[in-house]
Amino acid sequence: MREKLFTSILFSLLFLLTTLTATAQTNDRPPETSFEVTLSVVSGSNDAGSRGELPSSLAAIAKQLRSNFGMTNLRLADTYVGRIGNGGNIQYKSLANIDSASQVETPSFLDWTIAGLRNSSGPNMFFIQSFRFGARVPIRVGAAEPGGRAAIQYQDIGLNVDRMTIGQNSPVLIGTIALPKADGGRVFLVLNVSPAAN
To answer: Which of 30, 43, 107, 147 is most buried (CB neighbours < 10 A)?
Structure first.
């Protein structure tokens, strides 16, 4: 009888000790790091009549775009911000202002995703498993009839990238997408990742 009582007390003490140790280890863990992801959608064209300026945070990107693509007009179409944990994913769907010439009756729609964002092995670097950007943009498919509007058809455009590394607080050009415009308009996707304030 004493042996059973002793064994029972011993197991209870071991269980209590194991539970307290596990709880202490859980409480000692630092909070998970979160990151702020900023996607800037820059619209570029050679339409001299609609000059635009980019914010100073995109000055290096503006210089790169003018040099590499010869665009005379660059404007910030939209900026999207999201918060994501280490190893997490983010998906965003919205109306868009990709083409300033589009009428309110024919908006663009976008859908972008970042999957598997995490700290990279290098200092102040991030690894992204995949980045996907898609948009549905309106295209006029015929001349307007007298007193009426032209027929509009939506076209899917987009960009998919698997596995890339980017620096912290360093906006980087992810890719370009041609717009269905006569002046050779393009959309430039610029991504920035920085530690989020808790």
So the answer is: 43
DSSP strands (E only) in the chain: 34-45, 73-85, 88-96, 108-119, 125-140, 152-167, 172-178, 186-195
Of 69, 67, 75, nearest to 50 by C-alpha is: 75
**What pTM value is reported for the model?**
0.76
Residues in contact with 52: Cβ distance below 8 Å, sequence separation at least 6, in sequence order: 43, 73, 74, 75, 76
Distances (CA, A) of 170 to 53, 125, 158, 173, 179: 19, 10, 23, 10, 26
CA–CA separation, 84 and 26 (whole Å): 22
Residue type, 100: S
pLDDT tens, 39-83?
A: 999 988 877 665 667 889 999 999 998 889 888 788 898 899 999
